[in-house]
User: Fold these one by one.
Assistant:
Number 1:
Amino acid sequence: MSFNALMVNKNDEGKTKAEVTQISEDDLPNAEVTVAVEYSTVNYKDGLCIGPGGGLVRNYPHIPGIDFAGTVESSDDDRYKPGDKVVLTGWRVGEAHWGGYSQKARVKADWLVPLPEGLDTRQAMAVGTAGFTAMLAVMALEDHGIKQGPVLVTGAAGGVGSVATAILAKLGYEVAAVTGRPETEGYLKDLGASRIVAREEINETVKRPLEGETWGGCVDAVGGAMLARVLGQMEYGASVAAVGLAGGAALPATVIPFLLRGVNLLGIDSVMQPYDNRLRAWERVAKDLPMDKLEAMVQPATLSDLPKLGADILNGQVKGRVVVDVNA
Ligand code: NDP
């Protein structure tokens, strides 16, 4: 029986092309669990993998999609049986191993977690890797102690930023949301942001290594000049959970905020999280993310929409989360 997948291929000149193709189960890679995929999403990494440069893809032809949720169809591993609802993020799926832009996927049992109670497969993918990472970032801030001032979220209208804003607001923190898109102010306020900060206000080179102690914590999806500037604006002993580099990988900062203010820079990696951490984070998502807010973030899509959406996310044009119904 054949089924649909978004296949990316590379021609002799090194140019990549992504198109919806029919494949069969025999084409899938070897692994223990075959999943009937229901939903996947569009993350920044997916944009890189779909796009013309190929980005992070390790082998061609390739099926991108760094996350998915669905139902187990068959399993050679005792932990999963047919009918189980599962969710997958990370482990280089969609980069080195065929991913979720397919009606079926075959993956290692170790990479899956059971869908937590309170979430269906569509909600799990409305959260997706971006939202799961936002939860990991909030948990890291909690572990190190969130101080009194507002918690800053950068890249707030994007996937990580939107979910981080909604979770922090639900937990009772005052959230200041940094965005370069003024038209998203109403959206961000509906998610729970109490203050909108224009990107230009923060996104400039560090002039003084320390400024006023302004933020009690920060979830940073942008990196680059913005992260460098934010470090000097943190309260004494406060933490920045660094998640992404949508604004650049270079960090033009000084060591002064670490030395004179005891600021913590916490690196967040969603890819290699051990099973127990993943389960804990998904359970926290089910508990702490307001589902009505999640719905407001969602833009629906199909497999054939993906080439365009991959380009949009790299250009910072996607608002919130894109949920891909692979069977639509
Ligand atoms: P999105 O594209 O959805 O969001 C990124 C947001 O950053 C944009 O919406 C925009 O927000 C802002 N932004 C984009 N370009 C710039 C710029 N040049 N300067 C300042 N701000 C900018 O991506 P995600 O939220 O899905 O991911 C964000 C980052 O986190 C990416 O780098 C991604 O690779 C990384 N990531 C890391 C993970 C990990 O495990 N560490 C897991 C998931 C994602 P606005 O319009 O509001 O200004």
Number 2:
Amino acid sequence: MLRYLNGGESHGKRLLAVIEGMPSGVPITETEVNRDLARRQKGYGRGGRMKIEQDQVEFVSGVRKGFTLGSPIGLQIENKDWKNWQQIMAVEPGEPVTQRVVTKPRPGHADLVGAIKYAHTDIRNVLEKASARETAIRVAVGAVAKVLLSPFGITVVSHVCEIGGVQAETGRMTVDEIRTAAEESEVRCADAAAAEKMVGKIREAKEKGDTLGGVFEVIVVNVPVGLGSYSQWDRRLGARLAFALMSIQAMKGVEIGMGFEAARRFGSEVHDEIFYDESGGGFYRKTNNAGGLEGGITNGQPLVLRVAMKPISTLYSPMKSVDIKTKEAFEATVERSDICTVPAAGVIGEAVVAFELAAAMIEKFGGDSLIEMQRNYNGYMDYVKNV
Ligand code: EPS
């Protein structure tokens, strides 16, 4: 079983995670994790905080001489901003904090519900962990998962499909073309004309003191048939992927394959017909409306998942709210915020999808060592080829 826990306040000393259940013998370096951390920090529409942070992971356990040991992998990322918050975020007991106390909840944020639930009078105690700063360590965890998927040829790609209502047109592009174009785009969108319009929309939101959401897509190629199971509700891989994606801050919906459009069509227009190639190709489909999943099980086609992100709830332009201390109405204003983080959200989506797939691979092929997994994988793929 692969699992992880994370901790860390946005302006605390550092973020941390422990991954348990990674097989031994997986080649891994901090450099490849840092590559994804840098990808997460980019994107037109980011705020001032990203000028302070240059996220770098440190492995503190479970890795020796560039290989995983099979023991828990400890990861940490320093918060560079912590030096500006040492007193406010101090761990030691002392005088009550009087600076940067937050009593004004932002509509759409965890602020109010979190303060009520945990009986906090300073909303900072809520927002520090509710913050999407947490996604930095989740990307690091996902990068470790990607390293396990890579020997099996499994590649996870993401791109932005929509920002502020501007839609990208990528229907005729291959996954490789999408990936290359998205990585070069400042909004991680593979359609250059749409990307330009998206940048314009983000600029417009900034001028208005507003924020913007959008939609990103995660595509996974070379997924073997047979990951996940219909045999129990919580083993259905589609459900687990949707859970993981919905656990990212600000996500409001997940579509698999044709998604919601399938609800509007006849069955004959939706389901992917099955063919058989006698010359050795075996079973195949001409379409992938199922997005690579049938009955909660991968069918060997690419996984296609689209995720809707709401606009960030920290706005420069005021929205109505009520102070939790004085109960007076106020109009919220902020000092620093991102305008749009859909480009970064795609990288986070890749990470959580990679983690769920790594977990499913371990369940199917064993998880003590990479060598054992490869042996089992090769035997299974021989069987699949001859079905
Ligand atoms: C966030 C608020 C901002 C973002 C932060 C998420 O932080 P700050 O209040 O320090 O400006 O920058 O995102 C990150 C730090 C990050 O690494 O993505 C929030 O409230 O969710």
